[in-house]
Please model this.
Amino acid sequence: MNYGICPLSSVPVRRTAADGSEMITQLLFGETFEILKQKKNWQYIRCTWDDYEGWIDEKQGRIIEEKDLGFYTKECAYSLELTQGAMSNNYYLPILLGSNLPDYDGIKFSLLGQAYTFSGNVINPKETKIDAELLIKIARRYLFAPYLWGGRSPFGVDCSGLVQVVFKMLGINLKRDTTQQIHEGQLVDFIQEVRPGDLAFFQNAKGKTCHVGILLPEGKILHASGYVRIDYLDHYGIFNANQGKYTHQLRVIKRVLAEDESNMEGFSLPQTMRIAEKPLF
Model:
């Protein structure tokens, strides 16, 4: 098998093998992939983090040995900076929020035999107490990031990409799309059990899952809609105060954080609400 790694700040993964094709997701610096097939100068890849598949320009990835895959996937810290330069050989490489920093020792990390100095804030989930408060602090770093279909960075992110990368920095593996994420975690059956850090999923007029956000204290939700923003949530869905109307219809709430990690109080919806894993309306 052939494997590769993202050596750039971000790399678009496209639906078809063409520069003008739709971007369906992004690779961030240090993320790895399996190369499934080649078409001229395009590679069809499967992301090792979430098994998502698509096409990348071969010039934007670098080949790694299969024996090195574990080094790049298991021994990582993650950048907590919106963007921060990593220095190597008299040049700076922009590192975005959520990027992988392999073998980071507090000062340096290495990739493809090259050492980089990195002075920004990082998180290593193996050395950090993971809880809802930390999850929300990280999620809030994306506030006002513009919505971008397929995006996973603070310079453009979609709703499921936001959720995926935030949980990634806590060492929690989620799938890429909303329709996949809704099947992860545990169903929150009763409204009195809803907690900050839970994921709320929403449906369109046809009953199809189409949106996701992270619950905050005091009946609020952080999500990407136009840009990453905070709105109010009740048993009907998301209420956008700027527009003066409901914009997303609530479908179901799921818990990904373990019970002892969901340690915040303060989220409340009408007590008559009972959430079930089926369309509510």
Observations:
- The chain has four helices and 23 strands.
- The chain has a mean pLDDT of 91.
